[in-house]
Amino acid sequence: MTILFDGSASRPMRYGLSRRIALFGPLALAACATGRVGAPAGQDDVHRVEAYLRAVKLQNVPFSQTWPNGTTGGGVLTYHAGYLHLIYTAPHPMDLEASGSHAVFKDSQTGSETRMGLAHNPLGLLMGNPLSLTGAVTVTDIQKPAGILQVSLARTENPSQGLVTLIFRDDGARLALYEIRLVDERRRTLFIRLEEA
């Protein structure tokens, strides 16, 4: 989800390889990092999201992505509990595959391959299998505008390591993930929007 590398085909960002690949942060950190879930209605929403993430099997879903510097790209996304694969076709062929506590990023333009741990990366919040939204993961905020359920997640022991916000279409009976926002420890935000889910 927020992969902090420059999506442009012409030149890398100035952050160095390890920072370019540091995975994000899916909403604004200031807006989402302060709330606590305590009401039974909030717990019901947490259980619905947890059940969705445990059961969903997204396969080659088209997505668009906006990096923190405004560069855009896209490709197809595959996700199920404990596994994420982003295959980029724009701005040029790239590949991010995450499973459990590790991820591998390949850039066909430069020929580089980078391996990274997810223990301190916001992306790791979505890699549990089975995924749990209690214990090591804390739900920091829930928003429910009409037809939408928005849930923000952080690491319980160190919420400053980043924030993931999942935005679902919600018709009351069914959730459909359509946006992920990732905010890293430097408060840079990456957006991934699914065209169908």
From TrEMBL:
InterPro entries: LolA/LolB/LppX. Keywords: Lipoprotein, Signal. The keyword Lipoprotein applies. It comes from the Bacteria. This is Outer-membrane lipoprotein carrier protein. It comes from Acetobacter senegalensis. The gene is lolA.
